[in-house]
Each structure stands twice: as C-alpha cells, then as structure tokens.
Amino acid sequence: MSAFARVHDAALREFVERLLGFDTTGGSEAPAQAWLVDQLAGLGFSTYEWTADADRLAAHPSFPDAPEAIDAADRPSVAGVLELGDPDAGPTLVLNGHVDVVPAERALWSSDPFEPTWDGDALTARGAVDMKAGLGACVFAARHLADTVEDAGAAGDVGVAGDTGAAGATGTADIEDADTAGLDGRIVVESVVGEEAGGIGAATAALDNPYPFERDAAIVAEPTDLRPVAATEGCLMVRLGLDGRSAHAATRWRGESVLPRFERVREAFERLESERARRVTHPLYEEFPIPWPVVAGTLRAGSWPSTVPASLVAEYRIGVAPGESVRAVEAAFRERLAEICADDEWLREHPPTFERFAIQFEPSEIDPDEPVVRAVQRAMEENGRSGTAPRGATYGTDARHYVDAGIPTVVFGPGSIEQAHFPEETIQWPEVTDAGTILADAAREFLGGRSVVEGRSAD
User: Which CATH number fits domain 234-356: 3.40.50.10490, 3.30.70.360, 3.40.50.1980, 1.20.1630.10?
Assistant: First the structure.
C-alpha cells in the first residue's frame, strides 16, 4: 500500500462519497461547489472562484453564437491553491476536474444514482467515474505533496529525515524524501462546471486567468484507465433536416417519404467515415477500429402512423481528428451531402438543412515529450505501472481549452470511459488511491523534486 493510501484513504472515501451525494446535473453545481470551497479551505488551500460570461463565451468556437443559449448563470467554478517553498521561484501545475455530471435515467439504476453504494471496492454512483473520484484524487494528491514538503523541511531543520515535528497533524512522517524540502512552486486544484456543456468553467479560466500568477501545465483527471492521454478528439454537432410530402398511408404512392432519402444520407456518411479512417491518420489512434466515429444519436421522423413521413430531423456527432478543424470536417460532410442532392431530383428541389447546434469540441494534442507528460510517466514507473506510452482518446475534454491557451495539458485519471454516462456508473477504489499516489508523485516530479518510493510498503 502506498503512503498516500495509508494516510488519506479514509478521508478521501468520505470526501468522494459526500461529493457524489450532490446532484450536480448541468446547471445545479452551486451547492456542491460551496461545500467544496469549505473543504478546500479546511485543508489549507487558498480558494478562488469565478463564473462565466455568456457574452464572452458566445465568441468562442465551442459554444453557440447566441449568449442566451449558454447556461452560465449561478454556476461557479472553484479552485484551491497550495504554495510550496518560494512559489514564485518554481512552476505552477493545475490539477483539473469537473463537478457537473450528465443526467441519470433513474429507471435504469438499481438504487438512487446520487446515493453512493459500495460492493467491496466497487463504488457506484452518477459521477463516480466521470469524474468526482478523479477530482477527489486531485485534492488529496495536492495535500499529500504539500505535507511531504513540510515534513521534509522539518526533517531538514533537525537533520533527521521523517522527523515527526511537522507531521503530528498530517500523519505523513513516514514519507522520507529530503529532496522535497527545497521544492518551490504552486499546485492548483480546480473544480470546474459545465464540462459536459462545452467546458464553461474551463473555457473561462483559459480565456481570462482567474489567478494572480501564470500556469505552466495541467493534468485533467478524466477517466483514462490510469494511462496518459496526449491527444483528444474533437466533434462536430450538426442537425440534418429533410422534407418530403405527406399522404395517407392508404395512398402512400402520392407522398414522398423522407426515410429512403435519410437512408441514402446515412449510408453516404458511413462511407465517408470509412474513407476518413483510411485517409486521416494519427499515430496515437491506430488502435481504434473507427478513429473518427460518425453517429446519428437522435432521429425523429413523421407525425402519424397512417401518414407518409414528410419530415425528419437527425442529430449527428461527427469525430474530428487532432490536427483537423471542426470547420474543415463540416465542409467535407456538406460536400458529401451536396453530392447526394445532385443525384436526387426531389432533394435538388427540396434541399436539406445541415446546421450546427449545441456545442462543438475542437480536438487538441500536445507533444508527448512535454515535461508534464514525462512527469506522469516517471510517476507511473516509480509506482510500478505499465502502459506509460501516451495514447489518444476518441472523446473530448477540457484539456483543449488549456492547450489552446498555451498551457500544456495531459489527461490522466482513474476509471474507464466505458463506465462514463452509463447506468450503474462504477469505479474500482484502488484505482482512485493509485491515481492519488501517481498524481502526487507527478506533481513532485514536475515541480522539480525527486519522486521516490522509500516509505512505501508492499500490499
């Protein structure tokens, strides 16, 4: 068991359980954030808070152009800052998580999604994976490193590593790392809102720095199976509209059904998906059978069972590869749709609509050799973890906002994306404590200290 787990396991469990108990479905994060500010202050963090300006975000490519379509009111993002040594003499590392969750279809759960339940080491609740357990790991990883630095400093004062003088309150005297005594810099832990709605809190923090200091790198603790992710996919959200001509079902030959036309579009988009998989390549996405997926997530057609369906609306999510732009991918699909219309007399005379809606996720990536990536890899190695090679992910994260702001950001956290947004969302607790251990060591490595394994015992 790691020193992190020995010292923080009970408190981390309680913290995550309490956080999971808040229903933070998009727009209702404020009570949880108020609780979190109190917790951070009680743990010795200096706290910060900011809210988004809908007018400002409307000019951002991820968000709708109309400010009234952006739900930013009463949604505070919060952060805690711990300063180490001479904070201005060292770098600043951000550990980021989002507190909002997607809606839970309660009929598909065996218990209340916002009443966390345990089955051995398995913790089930909405947000357990995406991503309140990862957020909790960030909080206690930062506190753990700060305690280690304080203990090492106290040990240096008396010339004995692990002196208990500074550890009486923290219980970290068994962590022996005298090199951390001179560690300088800052650790910021962020709990942002609206990630599922385009990154309302993170985009605001990236556009307008809420802190009186600069940020040098970030780790976003989304679920990655404890493997570093250096590239995240973007997505284009578009709404396709088709018009036909209604008729009584008994004389359907008098109508023009939209369904055969939609099937032509669906097949054409599927072929374009396959073409793009062959043509648009990226070394971090070779493992995925469909690297840039195209999905019609919703489909609504017709108005009455005995009437030829004369209208159809389909909402698409189209994957955008790192290195591409949402605009360029949109143009490619518009071109393919135009080809279909050119071959169909009805569609030429009744052209479909194809418009963006909701939020857009631009892709992002950083150099796998960035210091923050190497810090995570080094921490993984020191803790006996394999799979240190950076990967790509077919989902989007808030990392893109920080990368666009010039802040190198890697994604690394506990849990599997396969559990995110699912009923009975479950995380294995050992992954959470492992994440805390690795995040603390990665922060030490990035801030200039030496990540060590002394003081750890085997399970």
Answer: 3.30.70.360
